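INPUT
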Amino acid sequence: MLFFRSEEHIDRWCRTWKVARGGTLSLDQGWRLALAWYGPDRRDAAWRRKNVAEVEALFADIGLTSGFWSLRLPESS
Amino acid sequence: MNQTTEDFDFQVRKAVYDVAMQRGYPPTLAETSSLLHVTPQEVGRAFQRLAAGRVLVLQPENGEVLMASPFSAVPTPFLVQLDAYSCYGNCIWDALGVLAMLKKDGRIATSCPDCGTALEVRVANGSVQAKQGLIHFAIPALHWWDDVVFT
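OUTPUT
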């Protein structure tokens, strides 16, 4: 996850490196994600990684709802 | 060893994060074994189990910790500066994560990957501030762990 000056710079970097445009977060969204992800104390015996449902809820809470943020395999047709 | 594997892995996880949070980068196998008074081989096996559980990312050549997220064992383009020390996050999310985990104010120094312009992010009084900038995730969330170092 990289930090760019602006949308224009993300677009140009993706074109230059032939990387598909991915997901973009504002700095505020990134900070909220960091607080939720890394706030719980990993030195606590009760700490565990978030499960898929918890991560989905977190993504939804900060407005990350497109397919890019999905954690489930697409259903085969 | 008179404790369960789960208990031991917790002791190792706690030791890794105790050290990383205190100094900004994770301990080596030797340091962790010394702290816990066990052999490096026992710690190495715990590191492997924690990596399998996606708690740590190891250096493939020697089994040492590469990432105890958000902390990096090696320099990265995401320098985090605190009053007590400076350290490296694995990515911009993790650089923010260092400040979130430590619950400290600080400064992140990085640069735009497109043009190289120096960029700064500050966290002060629990709020994030920057003159400009956007976070870009190139890899869809479902595939973050396919190659987490690249992600």
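end of record. Chain B touches chain A through 47 residues (CB under 8 Å).
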